[in-house]
Amino acid sequence: MKPKRSIICKGIESYDVDASILKTHKPKAGDIALFRVLNIGKHSSIQSENGNNSYIYPGDIIMMAFGSRYATGQFEGYVPDEFLEEYQILGKGGAIGKLASMNYRLLKVGPTNCEIIGYAVDENGAVINTKDLNKKKHPVKRFSAKRKGKLILSLGSSMDSGKTTTAAYLSRGLSLAGKDVAYIKLTGTVYARDRSYVRDTGARYSIDFSTLGYPSTFLCSHTELFGLFKRLMTMAEDQNPDYIIMEIADGLLQRETAMLINSPQFMKYVSGVFFSAGDSMSAMHGIYMLEKLGIKILALSGLFTASPLLEREVRENTAYPVLNLSGLEDPNVHDIITQQLENARNFKKEPVNHILN
What we know:
Elements: E1 4-5, E2 16-18, E3 32-39, E4 45-47, E5 53-55, E6 61-66, E7 69-70, E8 75-78, E9 87-91, E10 95-102, E11 113-121, H1 130-137, E12 150-156, H2 163-176, E13 181-185, H3 193-201, E14 205-208, H4 222-237, E15 243-247, H5 255-261, H6 264-267, E16 272-276, H7 280-292, E17 297-301, H8 308-315, H9 325-328, H10 333-346
Parallel strand pairs: 1-6, 6-10, 12-15, 12-16, 13-14, 13-15, 16-17
Antiparallel strand pairs: 2-11, 3-6, 3-11, 4-5, 7-8, 8-10, 9-10, 9-11
Helix pairs in contact: 2-3, 7-8
């Protein structure tokens, strides 16, 4: 049976299957293997190499990559350090590993379970690793703090707070203002829908961590994460955009997000932040956290703007612009960014503009 390949395995041209090392090889993130589907749970399909859904059934053979996942609304899982009788699909884009916990709403359906058949190996018998393959394809050619495009972060209070939608509609607004936009999703678990969505909404160029072979960025060291940032920025800057909108997954308290926003080495490249929140209280506390770090907030958006009442609560307690979808996709969003950056340059003291001081 021909295996169904997940999108993280895109670009693997030839391989052999080695079943002799199943119990001796200790997998690492990015290692490719073939699995047999045992039963269907949360994931009834995987994202195929062309980005479409490929539905899977018990008995199907699928090609996946080992990867860990942090997703408060779905699964927590890890690359195992030993052979297991069963593995769980952690992400639709091709991440597989050992499930550690799941959101309560998924308890009834559970995960999709698989058994490993063998590792995909090259002509030398080495296990094929998606991260290693892409390091050779996309090295850092150059990287400098001096560049044409402004780097704007799309941060949020949590998973599903509206970060991708904010990035997409902001891309549309800037594009309608005549600005060239590139989009980067720096962290998360492989699933190409977000980069496709932002591209279709307005970004001319759209890439993410999986473009460089990462099934997930969860548990990356600061050194590896910053190296990934530089490589993706190099690719985006080659397009000569006016703006680079960079989304960082999950919320401010998540490991990699916290690591980045607390890193002067990373933040020196950032012009400002669009912060998305699920409700008014998380919006206000997000402001508090970002201001304590001295991070420039350009505007607030996210799921809370779907409620006029929540939006009103935020507007009454902060001087920052609050933008719903209509505001984000309005070409005037470029003027708002320009004005906010000018205000930040002229106002050096920590702003006192909300109820959480």
